[in-house]
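User: Quick sanity check before I run a bigger batch. Here is a single chain. Can you write out its predicted 3D structure?
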Amino acid sequence: GDSVALLHILVARGNGLRAVTIDHGLRDESADEAAQVAVLCRHLGVPHTVLKWEGWDKSGNLQDAARQARLRLSATWAAEENITHIATGHTLDDQAETVLLRLARGSGVDGLSGMAARRTAGPLVWVRPLLHARRDELRAYLVEKNIEWIDDPSNDDPKYDRVKARQALAIL
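Assistant: Done. Predicted structure follows.
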């Protein structure tokens, strides 16, 4: 939902947008969901690429490995396409979860500062234009505009630390 809202907001701002979906292949539905994003992008007139993550050895932290693969695949795609900026759909809720997770892991002051709205990594600039928005605000926007989205069920799976942080924040 966050990424679909971001896509629609950026499409409304102007031309030159391109989209990439990383299919992690971790659920049977992931390829179909990536194909649905491709249809949405085609409908919006946005060139779209699906990249498949392969090669996870099933050891270590799955969510971190998937995040690292997403960053790596996206950065490689951007370099090949001469793209200088990548926007992600991170929200204020993601920011709060990140700070809570870093606090739980014993991060110092720098780690507790959270995610930057803009980060440069080599020739690529990563931007988070929705970092000020709450997830529920984005869902309300999508509902108001009658825009469909797909929620990844792993975002509600309590075996992942981020989901535990999300649940703790809801209580707090």
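The chain has a mean pLDDT of 90.

User: Great, the batch can go ahead then.
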